[in-house]
Write a structure and sequence with these properties.
This protein has about 525 residues and is of the alpha+beta class. The protein folds into two domains: about 130 residues, no CATH class; about 300 residues, paralog of FGE (formylglycine-generating enzyme), CATH 3.90.1580.10. About 30% of the residues lie in helices and about 10% in strands. The chain has 14 helices and twelve strands. A hairpin with a 6-residue loop joins β1 and β2. The N and C termini lie far apart (about 130 Å).
Length: about 525
């Protein structure tokens, strides 16, 4: 009996000892876990500070532009921090911390492995880049009232449109408020009240008459009632092979079948219509207020029209702050481009219009039959393809003639940035997409015979645009490359009802050049 009692006592004391050890390790584990959680939290707090963000972000102006922005420099004295804009709100816990980890790793890697001197800071300040780094939930977390006291009528209209279309069109606050977090003195999103129209008080300096044309040769057109002039190039008529052969790299199905097209002679503007030319048109024809589109169409379609109804004021700055003058005019609709031609015909007494698609390609080729009017293979110039992950595309040759993604700095350039093609035309490829007079039909070439004279497609939903633009890859600026307008998509964020017939809100690289018919 005694032995049994001793055995039980040893067992109980041994079990108690084991329990004590387990309890010790349990509480030690809890304490360590709490310490780890607290440490991680404190680390997270530190790496959510403005100072920690500035450790890796080496943008030369980011700190100063943030301090000057409305999110810091405001009447309320409230400071909005980096993470408030660049991360989802903390009440979206999983999204907040996963985004933080992802961006933190990316920023740290960039800081260690990349050279900030190679960064294109202008590109990183563009809207289409900014929207990927500003979660819309962050804007809405603070700005719960979109109609605060003192808001303008135009802002009310825009915000009502945002509320109605936000989910359907995936609208984001940053699309209109790009300068809210980082001040940019050149950025404007408000409705314009004045435009850079050249004002000359001495009207004796204005051209009195348009340039008389007595021979089929290059001439300098003068716009009466202005100081604006521009060069027109005589393009001889002839036949050419329109489209691209199957062997051409990056060709698309709508570029075939190749056919022989014969064209009559015509004049074409040396460069795209410039802001100087377009503002001259705007100054003489601008519509007051919100002129109903029906009234505009009715007036401009009259056969005896002697005064064209022109554009209403645009929302924002249509030149994107890049500058006017000789830069190509952009963001106008196809209807606006047609109306410009109608007005120019009235004031000069000539027949100005948009080029047909065939005229455009014929002029762009300049008598050549290669992918470009200069030497070079699209595969050599293009950024597309597996090898481009290891080797950069060649820019030798193409950069002398084309403003495209590899040399444009993501904006339009003045005509002097490139050399002319064999016909003496500049920027036929790149810089801005150019409107044509044809409706877009992907099967247009197949619907005609092998030989066709002066073709024009008049049926379709969208218009042909040609030439690519400043953000296009080299594959999209080939002479035969075709594209078309995306009317509804290009008007997504236009807050007006009805939507503007004059200005596109969601495309920047669209413009046009003009043709004058040979009498």
């Amino acid at each position: 009996m005694r032995n049994i009692l001793l055995f039980r006592l040893k067992y109980l004391f041994g079990k108690r000892k084991i329990f004590r050890y387990k309890s010790f390790y349990f509480f030690l584990g809890v304490a360590l876990g709490v310490c780890i959680v607290v440490s991680l939290y404190q680390t997270s707090v530190y790496f959510s500070s403005d100072a920690s963000c500035m450790m890796c972000h080496v943008h030369p102006h980011v700190t100063e532009s943030w301090k000057l922005s409305k999110h810091v420099n405001n009447a309320s004295g409230t400071k909005v921090h980096c993470v408030d804009c660049h991360l989802p709100p903390k009440n979206h816990t999983w999204k907040h911390y996963t985004a933080k980890a992802r961006l933190g790793i990316k920023d740290l890697w960039g800081y260690i492995a990349k050279d900030s001197a190679d960064f294109d800071w202008d590109r990183k300040s563009e809207i289409d880049y900014a929207v990927t780094y500003i979660p819309n939930e962050s804007c809405k977390e603070c700005h719960t009232n979109l109609f605060p006291e003192g808001i303008s009528d135009d802002a009310i209209t825009a915000h009502l449109y945002y509320e109605e279309k936000e989910e359907k069109l995936n609208l984001q606050c940053i699309s209109c408020h790009l300068d809210a977090g980082h001040y940019n003195p050149n950025y404007k999103h408000e409705k314009m009240t004045s435009l850079p129209i050249r004002q000359v008080t001495d009207t004796s300096l204005y051209f009195k008459i348009a340039t008389p044309v007595t021979a089929f040769e290059n001439f300098t057109e003068q716009i009466p009632g202005s100081m604006v002039s521009f060069e027109m190039i005589a393009i001889p008529g002839g036949a050419f092979r329109m489209g691209s052969p199957e062997s051409e790299p990056f060709r698309k199905n709508d570029e075939s079948p190749v056919r022989t097209v014969t064209l009559s002679p015509f004049f074409m503007s040396e460069v795209e219509v410039t802001w100087d030319m377009y503002w001259a048109f705007y100054a003489k024809t601008m519509s007051e207020g919100r002129t109903p589109p029906a009234n505009v169409f009715a007036n401009n379609s009259r056969p005896d029209v002697d005064a064209v109804s022109g554009p209403t004021s645009p929302f924002g700055s249509p030149d994107q702050g890049w500058g006017g003058g000789n830069r190509p005019a952009i963001t106008m609709t196809h209807y606006a481009a047609q109306t410009f031609c109608q007005w120019l015909s009235l004031v000069t007494g000539k027949k100005y219009r948009l080029p047909t698609e065939a005229e455009w390609e014929y002029a762009a080729r300049g008598g050549t039959e290669t992918p470009y009017f200069f030497d070079g293979n699209p595969k050599t110039f293009s950024n597309e393809g597996f090898l481009r992950k290891f080797f950069s595309a060649s820019t030798e040759g193409i950069s002398s003639y084309v403003v495209y993604v590899n040399n444009s700095k993501n904006r339009t350039q003045e005509p002097g940035a490139v050399k002319a093609n064999p016909f003496g035309l500049k920027n036929m490829l790149g810089n801005v997409m150019e409107y044509c007079a044809d409706k877009y039909d992907p099967q247009a070439y197949a619907k005609t015979g092998e030989n066709v004279n002066n073709p024009l497609v008049t049926e379709g939903e969208e218009w042909v645009v040609r030439g690519g633009y400043y953000a296009s890859d080299a594959s999209a600026v080939r002479c035969a490359a075709r594209d078309c307008t995306k009317h509804d998509e290009w008007l997504k964020t236009d807050p007006q009802q009805p939507k503007s017939i004059w200005w596109y809100s969601d495309v920047r690289g669209i413009g046009f050049r003009i043709v004058c018919e040979k009498e």
